Amino acid sequence: MKNNLAFLIGIIVSVTIVFLLTYRKRKRLECKFDERQKQNLNLGYKYGFNGMLVFMMLFALVTEVYKKVNNSEMISLTMFVITSILVGITIVAAFTIFTDSYLQFGANLKKFYFTNISIGLLNLFLGISLKSYVNILVSLLMFIIAGGVFIRNKFHKEDEE
To answer: Which spans are transmembrane here (predicted)?
Structure first.
């Protein structure tokens, strides 16, 4: 039953993503980032990649020590790789949010919040119902990004006043 539910939700999410991508291509929306934002995005990618490498090295060391002491695996290789990727994405998102480069000019914040919170809630539901570690991490990432943008915009508006 749980596999059927996950399959059905996966199909619904996939169709929605394809629809949104098709809709976006039709509108021919161009990104409206200025030079400063583009530089910060590139710097964010650099920090995210380096942070992911450092995380992978440290976590690999910890898992090897754990394996030697307890004669068992601490985490599967798949979870290790996915967690490392999510750490890199989180670093990029955090850096670009707080350098005011995450969203382009004129972005629809209501749509952004709705999308992130919806994806976060869907992944939280799947993570709890399927006991999926990855879905819970993705859910946490979506909430962190939405919260970070909200906090940044709140402080940015207070700075302007």
So the answer is: 6-23, 44-62, 74-99, 111-128, 134-151
Q: Give the amino acid at 96.
A: T
CA nearest neighbour of 74 among 64, 86, 88: 64
CA-closest candidate to residue 153, choices 119, 109, 114: 109
Tens of pLDDT, residues 57-80: 999 999 889 989 998 888 888 888
What range does the domain containing 40 cover? Answer: 33-159
Q: Decide if 23 is inside a domain.
A: no
CB contact at 8 A, 160 and 100 = no
| Backbone phi and psi for residue 131, each to the nearest 5 degrees, phi listed first | 55, 50
Please state, in angstroms and as integers, the Cα–Cα distance from residue 76 to each residue in 62, 81, 82, following that order.
13, 9, 10
pLDDT at 133 over 90: no
Looking at residue 2, its amino acid is K
Residue 98 near residue 159 (C-beta atoms within 8 A): no
Domain contains 70: yes
Provide the whole-model pTM: 0.75
Determine the pLDDT at residue 76: 83
Query: What is each CA distance from 32 to 36, 105, 107, in whole angstroms?
Result: 12, 6, 9
